[in-house]
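S1.2 Input.
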Amino acid sequence: MSDRPTATHKEAGGSARGASLADKLERIGVLRDEDLVLHLPLRYEDHTRLVPLARARSGATVQTEGVVANVDIQYRPRRQLVCLLRDAERGDATLTLRFFSFYPSHQKALAQGARIRVYGDVRDGYFGPEIVHPQFRVVYEDTPLPDRLTPVYPTTAGLSQDVLRKAVERALAADAARTAEVLPAGLLRRRDLWSFDDALRFLHAPPPRLSAAAQKALDERTHPAWTRIKFDELLAQQLSLKAHRKARAARRAPVLTGTGALTRALLERIPFRLTHAQERVWQEIGHDLRRGIPMQRLLQGDVGSGKTIVAALAALQAIESGKQVAFMAPTEILAEQHYRKLQSWLSGVGVEIAWLSGSLPAKARRKALESLESGAASFAIGTHALFQEGVALPRLGLAIIDEQHRFGVAQRLALRDKGMTEAHQLMMSATPIPRTLAMTFYADLDVSVLDEMPPGRTLVSTRLVSQKRRAEIVAWVGKGCREGRQAYWVCPLIEESEKLELQTAVALHAELTRAFGPRQAAAADESGTDSVSGCAVAPIAVGLVHGRMKPDEKAATMDAFARGDIGVLVATTVIEVGVDVPNASIMVIEHAERFGLAQLHQLRGRVGRGAAESSCVLLFEDPLTDTAKQRLKVIYETTDGFEIARQDLLIRGPGEFLGARQAGVPLLRFADLERDVELIEQARDAADELLKSDPEAARLHLDRWLGSRQAFIKA
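S1.3 Output.
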């Protein structure tokens, strides 16, 4: 199999120009001739008919033809090439062609008297109808028109549509095997699918004058030709995921049976009972750990559903079995939150925990590394510092990764491979995975869902408030804090940015300190109470926490907030996940229109953890973009994490939603996760059928779609 498309070599004749063309093809994902035939058009242009020059009306997209009457370079208002076409039959009909970017080759081709065929959007110009930057070619009176629609392909800088079209045509014509059927006839017949060859040739060169319904189906990618291609793409993905799962089942991991001693001690120490969902998920994970096959389980649960205690129970089963556990979180503040919570739970049961982060002082870091390498510490908690060079976990049996989508494949592999043998993996996410994503990109994982909230959680009311009413919100927050409540006030930036005129954490801290400080308290009436609420007026302490602070400063501020010494905590999104202060019942989010849906949902989940009625205020700046309106509408209307995740997928698409989880995985180019749910299910069933009844067909299909990228999911 060639590394580069042979069409490239034919085009180049072995020259440097050809090598450059191969590089451009590689930039659009074309590594082989097989990839060229699967490089399908974005849309089509109709070059099968000519519109007389006299009927080229403004607002229409037309192909027309004429003779060059005049061509010259003009300099007002800027340098441009202007060409006047005249109808060869009707001398009074003209069309101006205007080029603001042009080369000497343009002037040479558009010589006076040349017959030119042009395609483009007609608009009203100074001297009648004109087309700016049209497609054009020199023709003769007998030059035929194409008999098919002209495809427009995804491309890159320096790779013209003409070169790409010729490369695709050559790849299709050169070897019949590239479009030969590899799937069993029965499998296709039961699903009423077109043949692969028919679908490909139709999509690369559809016939002209399709019916309105067929043209609509082609444009919207619901045509049977598109259905076959989307099915094949989804089938390749499903086969790859199932192959990965099968390969994992053949590998060995430590058998972690545990003794139950540490687990019982922990359950006696914690001040709450496990929910039914936590019990169920703990049993699922425990069962996996007792097998000799590497666990790869995703634990998902909405904000506040209690994932950390489940992770602690899994960790203890590994530690009871004589193994070490690594717990990795994406940010230092979140990792530290986990460390403090787990330290408070586990210190009384005799488990030594080592804390590792990038900002740890050299002496403390050295001590932590020594205790891990010697095995004295059986539990390591930290950030990405856990998988850096110099960190030894010789008895690693379980790797726990929180907010797993924020880590890349290579990072998770580096952590998993720290041990002498392959470790089990438990990945956690507070961002629920929509069903279609779970069926596609996460089909290689076992999934556990915490679908029950611990008792005591209160509903959070959400309010959308314009920045114009900011003063009212400041006063309302002050009133709430003087009544004994606490508030988070979140903003997107740490310090001033010239590009984004957003409220920043530092400036906001100063503003709220003034608003809630001694002067404001002194403004109360002589009785020392607020004349509206009747509550005693006293200064409110305002704290500040952000990602650039030193760990001990952050810890001191968070401790003060947890104790109730700070009334309002100004923060960036470092408090997005994991922070748990039951008395905090007010959340204000500055410039909510700048945040993603998942972030807004996570932030809102920081409140509603105590008995008090909780509120989340989303401050937004007018005017809102359509996307921002969509996001704010969703977060206002629902608190269901799965519905929010589904809407988020619709708004953002899978690429952003997946984050770094699938680094190296080709995202779906043709199938749509929302519109093609039925096809996803068909592909999933067909993959099982194929692997059982015709593994050779499965291999050929994977080779066609993925080639050397077949083992794309590593962790």
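S1.4 Remarks. The chain has 26 helices and 21 strands.
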